[in-house]
Each structure stands twice: as structure tokens, then as C-alpha cells.
Write a structure and sequence with these properties.
The protein is mainly alpha-helical. It has 13 helices and two strands, in the order ααααααααααααββα. Strands 1-2 form a two-stranded antiparallel sheet. A hairpin with a 6-residue loop joins strand 1 and strand 2. The longest helix is centred in the first third of the chain and has 43 residues.
């Protein structure tokens, strides 16, 4: 099978899997919500492990695949420029790593601006609601937030609905565009590959990560009381179609008959590397391993059997969860290492 055929095969597989997983919360809202509520802690642990597994896969793909490949393409292009005296000094600068940093900073800036805009929007909505309605007591507010049936996803208690462990994916159009940019460049990274083993590695990495993202995005969209079922499905389809668009774009650029194709491919691959670094360390690991002052949010306190006092979970439990996540990261890396060894052994 040719590389292009393999890329389009994975493009279809990723779209079908992520769409099915993303639509499930909206289509099966009643049944799925009840099951998730009955097994909330197990669901949270499985999502965390899957997310950490994806982080391990991304770590391997980013630092063992994307970064060396982007640097190699820049090195080959700059070598040709270095043959001429006027470009010699320019070619000595590590432009590949510079574009990686630019990619990270740009997507980091966009991410923070989007969060700031969403926070300002929610703060404004909360202020307006306090003007129109009588301010409730703290007890009423707490009980309202604790009841998922009485809370709307656009209200001030929006954060009460966020999936724990850092899997919050708000359903606003702004966030949809921001997440779509991530996914498009992840797809471009797959489409720019010219070797079958790299296509397989990158596709597995993107499939794992996007499946988790599609599920959490579908869960968030399904909570909306404003959107119809068809609108929710449309939101999910727009999100899941960004990966195929990215893969098709990468394949098109790779096969385009242009003399600037190599440098364009190198810039896009380096930019995608910066986005992968952002996804690994900012979107996954920073949320799965929160700082000490945020652990109360990620590990809710439980009531004791004897009285109504709150009991803080013991440290062995936190240690167990942390080791579980680290083991998932290692499993993700080992999966790609074994896959890489198998593919190279098969070629020889």
C-alpha cells in the first residue's frame, strides 16, 4: 500500500472513530449520563489514563519523530543556502528550532486569549444575572451547582459541569475554532509524512488524543439546553472533520509540484511540533498533574460513614492515582517504541 493510500485510510478511520465517540453523548444522553453518574470515579480515572496514554504517545512522536524530521528538512534546505557566501551566516542560525518555539508561543497565546475571552464573557453574564435577579445565598448557590439537572451550561455554574482531571472542552464557537486549529495542524503533521512507519506512528498518536478530545467535547456540547440535537451533532462533526482537513492539506502540500514545497513542508512540520509540545505539557500534563492548591478540585472530598464531616483522601490514594497516570504515559511511549521497532524490523 502506498503512503498516500495509507494516509487517506487513517484519515477515514480517525474521522469515523472520533465522530462516533463524539456523537455518543448527544445521541445517548439519558442512558450515558446515568451510567457515567453511577460510575463517575471510574469514568474519571479511565479518561485520565487515556489522556496520559495519549501524552506518552505524543512525547515519542514529538521528540523522536516530528522534531528530528523538521530539523532535518531545515538542515537540508539551509545547506543549499550555505553554499553561497551571502547566505552563509543566515544558514548557521537554527531556524528549525526557532519555528518550533514560534509555533508553541503562537498557539499558547491563542489558547490563553480564548480562555480570557471566555472568562470575561462568563463574568459579564454573571454580573448581568445579579442585576436582574436577587442574589442567592451561598447555601443556595452551592446546592444549585451540585444539582446537574438544574444547572445550564451557559450559567455562572458552568465550571461545575466540567469533567474533572483537565478534560474541560467548552462548546462555544471561540473554543471550537481554537481546538480546530490544534487538530488541523495535527492532521497536517500526518499528511506531511513520506514513510509508512511514520504515518502509522503519527496516526496512532492523533487517533488516541482526538478520541479523548471528541468524547469530552461531545459531553460538553450535550449539556447545552439551547442547542437542538441536530445543532449538537453539527458542532461535533465540525470538530471531528478538522483532522481529515489537516491530513488532506498535508498530503496536498507534499505532492504539490512546487520548488518551495520543501521549505513550506519544513515550516509547517516545525510549527506542528510546537503545537504538539503545547498539547503535551499545557493541555494534558499540566491538567492531569495539578499543583497542590488545586488538588481539592481534582480529587473531591468524601463524606465519612459515621458523620457529616468531610474527610480528605489519604495520601496513598493520591500517590496511587499519580503512579497510575505515570504508568499510562510510559505505556503510551512503549507502544510507539514497540511499533517503531516492529515496523523497522519488518522493512529489513
Amino acid at each position: 500500500m502506498e503512503v498516500t493510500h495509507l494516509q487517506f485510510l487513517f484519515m477515514g478511520c480517525i474521522f469515523v472513530v472520533t465522530t462516533a465517540v463524539g456523537l455518543a453523548p448527544a445521541v445517548l444522553k439519558g442512558t450515558l449520563s446515568k451510567r457515567l453518574k453511577d460510575h463517575a470515579l471510574l469514568t474519571q480515572r479511565l479518561l485520565s489514563c487515556a489522556s496520559c496514554f495519549g501524552a506518552g504517545v505524543f512525547l515519542f512522536v514529538c521528540f523522536m519523530g516530528l522534531l528530528p524530521a523538521a530539523d532535518k528538512k531545515f538542515h537540508h534546505f539551509l545547506e543549499e543556502l550555505g553554499h553561497t557566501h551571502e547566505w552563509e551566516t543566515f544558514a548557521e542560525f537554527p531556524w528549525g528550532f526557532f519555528v518550533v518555539i514560534c509555533g508553541f508561543l503562537i498557539i499558547f497565546t491563542i489558547d490563553k486569549l480564548v480562555h480570557a475571552m471566555e472568562h470575561a464573557k462568563q463574568a459579564s453574564a454573571g454580573a448581568n444575572s445579579h442585576i436582574l435577579l436577587q442574589k442567592p445565598s451561598s447555601e443556595d448557590f452551592s446546592s444549585h451547582c451540585e444539582d446537574p439537572e438544574t444547572t445550564d451550561s451557559s450559567s455562572g455554574c458552568h465550571n461545575c459541569h466540567e469533567l474533572e482531571g483537565g478534560h474541560d472542552v467548552p462548546s462555544s464557537v471561540i473554543f471550537l475554532v481554537a481546538l480546530g486549529m490544534h487538530s488541523v495542524f495535527e492532521g497536517i503533521a500526518v499528511g506531511l509524512q513520506t514513510e509508512k512507519d511514520k504515518v502509522l506512528e503519527f496516526s496512532v498518536a492523533v487517533l488516541v488524543h482526538e478520541t479523548v478530545m471528541a468524547f469530552t467535547f461531545g459531553m460538553e456540547v450535550s449539556k447545552s439546553q439551547v442547542l437542538s440535537r441536530w445543532s449538537k451533532a453539527f458542532y461535533v462533526l465540525v470538530f471531528t472533520s478538522t483532522i481529515p482537513v489537516g491530513i488532506a492539506t498535508g498530503v496536498g502540500l507534499q505532492n504539490a509540484p512546487s520548488e518551495n514545497r520543501e521549505i513550506v513542508s519544513a515550516v509547517l512540520e516545525a510549527f506542528a511540533t510546537g503545537i504538539f509540545i503545547h498539547v503535551i505539557f499545557v493541555e494534558i500534563l499540566a491538567k492531569e498533574f495539578p499543583s497542590h492548591h488545586r488538588r481539592a478540585h481534582h480529587h473531591p472530598q468524601e463524606k465519612s460513614v459515621d458523620d457529616d464531616s468531610m474527610v480528605v483522601p489519604s495520601s496513598p490514594s493520591e500517590m496511587c492515582l499519580m503512579m497510575e497516570k505515570i504508568a499510562s504515559i510510559c505505556c503510551g511511549m512503549m507502544t510507539l517504541i514497540l511499533l517503531n521497532v516492529f515496523m523497522h524490523g519488518h522493512h529489513h
